[in-house]
Amino acid sequence: MGAFDFFKGFGLTFGNMFRKPVTESYPEQKKETAPRFHGRHQLNRHPDGLEKCIGCELCAWACPADAIYVEGADNTDEERFSPGERYGKVYQINYLRCILCGLCIEACPTRALTMGNEYELADDSRSDLIFTKEQLLAPLREGMQAPPHPMYLGDSETDYYRWDPDTPLPAFKELASGGGSGSEH
After folding, report:
1. Are 54 and 110 in contact (CB under 8 A)?
2. CATH code of residue 99
3. Mean pLDDT per 10-residue interval, the chain, length 185 residues
4. Does residue 165 fall inside a structural domain?
5. Would residue 178 be called left, alpha or beta, if left means φ above 0 and alpha means ψ between -120 and 50 degrees?
6. Are 41 and 114 in contact (CB under 8 A)?
């Protein structure tokens, strides 16, 4: 260690003293994030409203912070929440533990879990930072029907994963009233 190392260390500080400070007016003016920013999670839906999550728990296994809890359950013909045999009955993400690394979305085999650009996750209550399935599910868009309901996009889960997004969606209300089998597209 030389005699001038002390002055070199303070040289950076001294050089920054005369720069104009950058002030951000947060939260009035929110900074735009990068398109691939890892923010709040979202559980996605199929075009007819069924959930994409099949309750496989791979996201929970991949999470290095142990922030995800999934409890799977079996679908029945009367109560169908996803096109597969199972669905995620309980789904929770603890944002007190989550490090927003994205390993959970890489592990998901159905692309049910994705991460959006929302980064405002602070709260003054610990219990409010444990997001439940209802908070994480994507909202129902126009033409979607809230589950449970039968499979409208095909007769098997394979039809759902091979669905062509350019194919027009069937009229779900007609199918629900018995006007079609669901496999016509």
Report:
1. yes
2. 3.30.70.3270
3. 76 85 88 90 93 95 97 93 93 96 95 93 94 96 89 81 72 53 42
4. no
5. left
6. yes
